[in-house]
Amino acid sequence: MNNLADTVVVDPGFGGGDKQAQAGPAPQDASVVVPPPATKQSSALKKTSRYRSRSLSASSTDSFSSASYTGSSEDGDDVPPREKVQKNSKGSSDFCVRNIAAQHAFGRREIEIAEQEMPGIIALKKRAAEDKPLKDAKIVGCTHINAQTAVLIETLVELGASVRWAACNIYSTQNEVAAALAESGIPIFAWRGETEEDFWWCIDRCVNAENWQPNMILDDGGDATHLMLKKYPTMFKLVKGIVEESVTGVHRLYQLSKAGKLTVPAMNVNDSVTKTKFDNLYSCKESILDSLKRSTDVMFGGKQVVVCGYGDVGKGCAQALKGQGCIVYITEIDPICALQASMDGFRVVKLNEVIRNVDIVVTATGNKNVVVREHMDKMKSGCIVCNMGHSNTEIDVNGLRTPDLTWEKVRSQVDHIIWPEGKYIILLAEGRLVNLSCSSIPSFAVSITSATQALALIELFNAPPGRYKTDVYLLPKKMDEYVASLHLPTFDAHLTELSDEQAKYMGLNKAGPFKPNYYRY
């Protein structure tokens, strides 16, 4: 196959909208390739007729900066990465990052720091490195690119895989980490602040490479799967398996399966116990506070907050904010989740009932148009609006791009949206995933998810023909338990072992699995 470096790729199914504007599959007649735009003006500026930027003082950026989230990842280099000619120390140019020369050393230190808090994936790397269970695997990855993901990527390579990687979010990439991966010889195409066009071009460069054909997909949001299915359907049929870790991506896979369009087996990692309980709940419980504090310096005590959605992400956010002294309201469509929220001491309301009084709005539903212009018109001045769901469709940001409103950029990923009468709201990360756009996430929680993803890839790649049909599967319970066991030594935790009599009484194997698939943890 020829490299399509000069071809501009846009979302094959979502038209000219945002990269995750719809959760479902695209129409069959959707356009795949369009000519490049005539100007280089940013999409944010093009979408609004009134936008002004406030100059940043040193104290403003210092109070927000942390490792890559401002300074190094936004180095002021105005030359688009696609227009640069860069090579790593080995002479390879099979990558596209912001600035490999200036950033790779710092990125390597970031990765080394992350490794110290990722015991599970490091243990898996050491145990399986000799066996090379992913030998001959050619993996296209489309995930957030940060120090923790880099540990996963390098683990997959150590286990024998050949990989090519792109970002699943235009704002979450740590530029220095991408540079470090490029320097180590990994074909990576990602930088912080990509345009929508850049986004699809990067994925295309990973999928369509000369003398390299992918046979596995590791996805976060379904974008790599979506592009391959729409643009390279023949290549897609040769894939041995897909591993998907997000609610949005899993929803897309089930839609494809229901429509009879999923021609390869897929593993739903998002609903594995180790991913759902530890990444969605415990990680978000910490990172929501980090995101809001870094981006706005907000004092939580006494603030009124509404969290839209009380799944595992919403539970983590609500519990964390309540623990800081916030008055927390919950919106829910599911009576079971609503009852859980009520029993946990939260008041369940409709958004319109509290929207005029709340100080912070957090979306965590995975749905679309949860917070729309009508809601934002009613918000008090200074209300903070952010999204903790994977997709950027929960907040109707396009409804704010009208001539009567002024956008004022005050910090990286922080915009004031100003109404004609002077009222303003604070929008974080333009409605995208706030914890990966405005802060860091706990490396330990990512270690659990990364180990789950690696095991899912190993399972699908090495499965004998016929074990998995063209459907969506959950990670086997035994693997979930193995991932958990890899992390227990960190806490000096000692498991009790069943006696033969106890195992027989319970009808269990002494080595597990210890719970049936229907068990709710």
Automatic annotation (TrEMBL):
The keyword NAD applies. Its cofactor is NAD(+). Pathway: Amino-acid biosynthesis; L-homocysteine biosynthesis; L-homocysteine from S-adenosyl-L-homocysteine: step 1/1. SMART domains: AdoHcyase (SM00996), AdoHcyase_NAD (SM00997). SUPFAM superfamilies: Formate/glycerate dehydrogenase catalytic domain-like, NAD(P)-binding Rossmann-fold domains. The keyword Transmembrane does not apply. Binds 1 NAD(+) per subunit. Keywords: Hydrolase, NAD, One-carbon metabolism. InterPro entries: Adenosylhomocyst_ase-like_sf, Adenosylhomocysteinase-like, Ado_hCys_hydrolase_NAD-bd, NAD(P)-bd_dom_sf, S-Ado-L-homoCys_hydrolase_CS. Pfam families: AdoHcyase, AdoHcyase_NAD. Residues 1-91 are annotated as: Disordered. It comes from the Eukaryota. It catalyses: S-adenosyl-L-homocysteine + H2O = L-homocysteine + adenosine. Residues 280-441 form the S-adenosyl-L-homocysteine hydrolase NAD binding domain. Its EC number is 3.13.2.1. Belongs to the adenosylhomocysteinase family. This is Adenosylhomocysteinase. It comes from Drosophila rhopaloa (Fruit fly). The lineage of its organism: Eukaryota, Metazoa, Ecdysozoa, Arthropoda, Hexapoda.
